[in-house]
Amino acid sequence: MLSPGGGWRSKCWPAERYGILAQKLLKQLGLRSVINVGPGEEDLAAKVASAAGNAQPMQFTGSLGQLMALLKNASAVVAGDTGPLHLADALGTKVVAIFGPTDPVRNGPYRRSGVVLRWEGAATTYKRQAEPDESLLHIGVDEVTSAIRGLREAA
Question: Which of 60, 48, 59 is nearest to 23 (CA)?
Fold first, then answer.
């Protein structure tokens, strides 16, 4: 499951990268992606789907109970510092947490049931901006794909 949204856009990995990730997951690991977005994040889902091309990720916008069922049964969840990441972690699902300006020591997955990616030069700030923080641009699609591969191999 790919969850590109978040409370504010400066802590969100670029939506286009989620789309490219969906392509790689399908081609390299045979995994079809589901895009999860919240209210007001429909533009993110459209950007992910556009960048995903033939990978054609399914889009989900359902109830909290339905989201929890999907998160519980997902092979892995890729998200930033956002509610679905923390729910997946609480449910014991493997996560790839992509952190930029928020501090994963403070805001990261509680159970640590996966991998936390954060650029070593990231500065911690909770300032809300409209665009992804520059630190998130240092985390590439291949790095996230490798993290997912590692989680699958460890299982």
Answer: 48
* Residues 151 and 94 sit within 8 Å (Cβ to Cβ): yes
- Residues 100-130: pLDDT tens digits? 998 888 877 877 778 999 999 998 888 888 7
Domains belonging to the chain, first-starting first, are: 2-154 (3.40.50.2000)
Please report, for the chain, how many H helices and E strands are present, in that order.
6, 6
- Which residue in the block uniquely carries the two structure tokens 């990720």? 57
Residue 58, SS3 per DSSP: strand
End-to-end CA separation in angstroms for the chain: 17
By CB neighbour count within 10 A (0-12 exposed, 13-18 middle, 19+ buried), where does 65 fall? exposed
